[in-house]
Specification:
254 residues; mainly alpha; Methane Monooxygenase Hydroxylase, Chain G, domain 1; 0% strand
């Protein structure tokens, strides 16, 4: 009777493993929304816990069959053979569910990381847009233009590492068919805004550099003219002081 019960337990265990495999490993999942992906991650975590909890039952079966084999070798030998099959299938099921759970957790982590990088770069683009707008109505002063140019250039020196991460993470998920529509839309919007603002900022940078160069050249010319007028003023003052008649002066002084 004990052998019959153990045989029944082994059959039930094998049936449960077959159902678990069908439910957790053989279904085709499509992750078209973050909610679907998150639910799949939580489901696989529960599946892993459920499967691992069966380890106690498997151990009890194994101990009972070993004990029976010592008392009734013929019955125990047959059950031991069936037990080995169940043990192999159980170990395989554990490994496969662990693997799928780990994969889904990695995918979810990849998605969260992508969102974080997009947030960082969006904040940088907001800053860049603000700096570009600030250069629109500058006072016609060399210091103001120079400060605006330096401020814009400091933002443009932003490293490209984050954009590389965005591209690689997005492509990894899209290649796996995971959230591909949502990610493609997000990347398209981000890249379009990045290209537009980058070109606008570089164009404004060139304009400011040219404006700054012109102002510096004008300032230099005014300085030279001012120095020349100062020299002339001192020379004329000395002529007046010495009461020199205009017709006695050099032509340029006249």
């Amino acid at each position: 009777e004990k052998a019959v019960n153990l045989k029944k337990d082994l059959a039930e265990m094998q049936e449960w493993m077959t159902q678990a495999e069908e439910e957790y490993l053989e279904k085709d999942f499509e992750y078209k929304s973050p909610e679907e992906l998150e639910n799949a991650v939580e489901e696989m975590k529960r599946a892993k816990e459920d499967v691992l909890q069966k380890e106690v039952r498997v151990k009890i079966l194994k101990d009972n069959i070993k004990m029976l084999a010592t008392k009734v070798p013929s019955s125990g030998q047959d059950l031991a053979t069936e037990l080995n099959v169940v043990l192999e299938n159980y170990q395989l099921l554990c490994n496969r569910i662990r693997g799928k759970c780990h994969t889904l957790e990695e995918v979810w982590s990849c998605w969260i990381e992508l969102l974080q990088y997009l947030d960082l770069e969006s904040a940088w683009l907001n800053n860049l847009e603000e700096r570009v707008q600030m250069t629109g109505n500058l006072p016609d002063k060399l210091d103001a233009v120079n400060d605006a140019l330096e401020s814009l250039e400091s933002v443009l020196r932003h490293p490209a590492d984050n954009r590389t991460q965005i591209r690689e993470l997005g492509q990894t998920l899209i290649d796996g068919g995971i959230l591909d529509d949502i990610i493609s839309e997000k990347l398209e919007a981000f890249n379009a805004r990045y290209e537009e603002l980058s070109h606008l900022a570089v164009s404004r940078q060139i304009t400011l550099e040219q404006q700054l160069q012109t102002m510096r050249e004008t300032d230099h010319m005014l300085q030279v003219l001012q120095e020349g007028l100062g020299d002339l003023d001192r020379q004329l003052t000395s002529y007046l002081t010495d009461r020199i008649d205009a017709f006695q002066m050099p032509q340029e002084a006249q």
